[in-house]
């Protein structure tokens, strides 16, 4: 399982459990909170009505008094109200009054007059000077039919002479409870979705950074010249990347020096042996050389010395490039113009050989113009060196959506099979047909390094129609 997926699943589980817990906690509090608020209102209502009914109750005209008429008219009213989107076309408040013995003497619904309510908690507790309230279901098998009752004492002086109870069904509050619960769930789901999106982005950001480090480590393990990755707003990964970069430089530096010392030693053996042999003959005591022989031996020394200097210079150039892991001072480079400049520069060496090409398409990339010029020049110089007199070299530039390709096809002899896999090795070279001499064997290695610094690649292969084809691929910006 991918690291990013593990992080996301862990975050998803944590956020989901936390969201479910909070939603349940808040959801469990909505119904009690609404009912507590309703009870608060009923307390005030019961006490207000108890004060209003007290004169009629004491005067003994409760049945035909103003309060009884008002209660009857109240039960018949149509509020025509819309409370928070919920329509109200009738009243839900029930009022009943008991005497000091708990017998119902007035009921706004008319259903309980004459009944003994003395044992109901609302009446029982109120008659004893306590707060009386209860919730009782109308159908004992159905919890949704519960009705909240709140009572207030009717007093004469300090004596409790009766009880007034107001009752309201809890289902009348259910639409508001459900509305609040629905809003809570919607808000919770939205917050959960936002949290998961943030978690997903965080997981991707962290995983992307680790993936960049993994890609960097893999590239280093196969010897690719890649820049040390940098991470925005992630100091830990940036520090780790820098540490990996330093470790790479130390390890590469040690292997690099060992490899180059062995290669350089091997390549310098031949010219040094030639110089030493010629010098020993020139300075051998008692040996008199002809002028032509003297000139030949001194010329050989100069030639081998120049070859050694060329090897050292090219090797230093290659070492400098291979120590770099990114480009410097990049600029827009017109590849068509670059090809024209290289062809014009090598035209005097072409002799009877022809360099042909179709009109160039427009192609601009960002890079180091000097390095790109050197790379293309090395390939074209190689093509000239291995093309016979009166032969042709065809250069083609093509572009697709993501990259450009340069193909250089000459009419020389095919590359031997044993050499195809070694052409880009340092110090490996094939003899030139014209002179039979080998080059330093560093030109193609330099070319590959220059192109890889630009994110490109180069390959050499025998062409199906004869000759050899060099292909360069460079990414477009």
Automatic annotation (TrEMBL):
Its EC number is 2.7.13.3. Its main location: membrane. PROSITE patterns: HAMP (PS50885), HIS_KIN (PS50109). Gene3D superfamilies: 1.10.287.130, 6.10.340.10, Histidine kinase-like ATPase, C-terminal domain (3.30.565.10), PAS domain (3.30.450.20). SMART domains: HATPase_c, HisKA. It catalyses: ATP + protein L-histidine = ADP + protein N-phospho-L-histidine. It is a multi-pass membrane protein. Coiled coil: none annotated. It is found in: Cell membrane. Residues 204-256 form the HAMP domain. It comes from the Bacteria. InterPro entries: HAMP_dom (IPR003660), HATPase_C_sf (IPR036890), HATPase_dom (IPR003594), His_kinase_dom (IPR005467), HisK_dim/P_dom (IPR003661), HisK_dim/P_sf (IPR036097), Sensor-like_sf (IPR029151), Sig_transdc_His_kin-like_C (IPR004358). Keywords: Cell membrane, Kinase, Membrane, Phosphoprotein, Transferase, Transmembrane, Transmembrane helix, Two-component regulatory system. The chain crosses the membrane at residues 184-206. One of its GO terms (cellular component) is plasma membrane. Residues 263-477 form the Histidine kinase domain. One of its GO terms (molecular function) is phosphorelay sensor kinase activity. NCBIfam families: PRK11100.1 (NF008312). This is histidine kinase. It comes from Iodobacter fluviatilis.
